[in-house]
Write a structure and sequence with these properties.
The protein is α/β, with parallel strands linked by helices. It has two domains: about 90 residues, Chemotaxis Receptor Methyltransferase Cher, domain 1; about 200 residues, Vaccinia Virus protein VP39 (Rossmann fold, 3-Layer(aba) Sandwich), CATH 3.40.50. It is about 40% helix and about 20% strand. The strands form three sheets. A seven-stranded mixed beta sheet has the order 8-4-3-9-10-12-11. Helix 5 packs across helix 6. It is globular. The C terminus is likely disordered.
Length: about 300
């Protein structure tokens, strides 16, 4: 998920960000991503975008801003979004979410299938960052026996940051990034890179469960028709203002099946934002169905 970086102090040679330019850039970030940058993020924005100025050989934000608005530089518009968003994630982050899936939800799905129910599972890792969340989910489904040939399991993993998605699609990580993966799972689902002993890569069987795609959560309608059994949208809401949080939640519920589960970050809540969700604990929510909701915000 896009995560504003900590503020840094200006250094020698830094192009200063004026009040006017900061306001223009802040509006651009909000318009393109939905992320609300407060005044405390000004130095962060200045530092991040100074890197873009240097990369382009520019000496002022007055030279840079037209590239973001003239429609002639789509590659720079994406580089801008990548520059002002960073990605914090880990394998098995908020482990209790995956424990719930493995210990309770998977058993219920197995029992449902034995009674003649559907063996189709669709999950969405929204704001997937560099992919660790999606690969963790794929491991959990595989370990629970829900990803075998008798099952139709697929994971959509999306993010707005194309640099992060490139890492995710490759599925290769420094070994220290995989430290949270239990050793038996690391052996079963990852290969040690032959060209680099300090890196691992997800096995093909794991990667084949996941489709990575660039999706901007702020742009509706989203480019798919799927209805999901599981949606992970963790540590995204905290970067939006209250109306945008409500709008995003309404849209997530529009693509979540009745009886599906929504997983949020540890500091996030749906309280006072949407109806139709039952809190199962530890930021896990069960969706009752569309009868509890109003019309989805456009």
């Amino acid at each position: 998920m896009p995560l504003p970086a900590p503020a840094t102090r200006p250094t020698s040679g830094t192009v200063p960000l004026s009040d006017k330019d900061f306001e223009l850039l802040r509006r651009l970030v909000r318009g393109e991503t939905g992320i609300a940058l407060g005044p405390q993020k000004r130095l962060m924005l200045q530092a991040r975008l100074n890197r873009r100025l240097r990369a382009l050989g520019l000496t002022s934000f007055a030279q840079y801003l037209p590239r973001l608005t003239d429609g002639d530089h789509p590659e720079e518009q994406r580089a801008f979004i990548n520059a002002v968003t960073t990605n914090k994630t880990d394998f098995f982050r908020e482990r209790h979410h995956f424990a719930y899936l493995a210990e309770r939800w998977a058993a219920a799905r197995q029992a449902h299938a034995l009674r003649g129910g559907s063996t189709r599972i669709r999950a969405w890792s929204a704001a997937c960052s560099t992919g660790e969340e999606a690969y963790t989910l794929a491991m959990v489904l595989s370990e629970a026996g829900l990803a075998g040939p008798q099952w139709d399991a697929r994971i959509l993993a999306s993010d707005i940051n194309t640099d992060a998605l490139a890492v995710a699609a490759a599925g290769a990580y420094p070994i220290e990034r995989a430290a949270a993966v239990p050793p038996p799972l690391l052996t079963r689902y990852f290969l040690r890179r032959l060209d680099e002993s300090t890196a691992v890569r997800a096995r093909r069987s794991l990667r084949d469960l996941i489709r990575f795609r660039r999706i901007n959560l702020a742009v509706w309608p989203w480019p798919f028709r799927s209805q999901f059994d599981l949606i992970f949208c963790r540590n995204a809401l905290i970067y939006f203002d209250r109306p945008t949080q409500r709008q995003l939640l309404e849209r997530l519920l529009a693509v979540l099946k009745p009886g599906g589960l929504l997983f949020l970050g540890h500091s996030e809540s749906v309280f006072g934002l949407v109806d139709g969700l039952s809190h199962l604990g530890n930021t896990i929510y069960l969706y009752a169905g569309p009868h509890a909701l109003g019309q989805v915000s456009r």
